[in-house]
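Quick bug: Trypsin-like peptidase domain-containing protein output formatted oddly.
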Amino acid sequence: MSSLLALSNSLADTVEQAGSAVVAVNAGKRISPSGIHWRNGIIITSDESLGRYEEITITLSDGVTRPVSFLGHDPSTDIAVFQLQNHQLPVVQIGDATNLKVGHLVLGLARGSQGDLRAAMGAVSVVTGAWRSMSGGNIDQFIRPDISFYPGFAGGPLVDASGYIVGMNTSGRRGTVLTIPASTIDRVVNQLLTKGHISRGYLGVGMQPVRLPSNLKTALNLPTATGVIVVNVEPSGPADNAGLLLGDVLVTFDGIAVSDTDDVLALLNNSDRIGKLINVQLVRGGALVNLDILIGERPVD
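Here's what came back:
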């Protein structure tokens, strides 16, 4: 057997094996996104690709449709989670996206609304560290695979050369493909299953960015030329209880420089900080002040 034929057969086997846990998600749109049987009875898909959250069905490999129930979603990481009852659907083999390198061959998989399996092959074009989505979601790695993103591929898996699913594909800017890594998916699924929502830290303040005078920046040895000024303090909230005042300008949060409200929100999005004392540095009356704030949990709308 030629090496090319052996590679072709190996790829087809990988697609078949990994694709057994891939479904189509029928959610009221003309083009159905795909979904992944992530855990026993747990289906994940791309949140932005859904037209609704109720009366959802999934299509399996044999074309049979099954109802699923909505468990929750996190728009900031583009993950929606559903429950599938009484199933015999294989569960994915989850891999470690941190092993990916630029140039590694990968596969994008999808399932059509009639149950047909689809695949696209390419290479990893970009891998970097953690990043924050435009909606403020903390995502553990930035992964951009160079694969063709055909209709219906959103919500489907990215598969490495060993046949492991290392993340979920979604659409980026200008038609590019981004992959939400498995570690981020696990974190979101865990929170949705235990709490029914995504926990985020809470200060109880209104903020806006402000530029600091250059002489003040120099005198106080501040890390940035801008900070975040407090324009509102919620009575009896975490910030109020800690003594934060109107007009205070936050310059560091938990040892990290902040120069915009997005910086503070991104740090609060880490649920590990909830219930912990976090040190903030702020400028008050021309002096640098340190405060410890007990981070609360953002109320659920």
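Actually, after a second look the formatting is fine. The longest strand covers residues 117-128. Closing.
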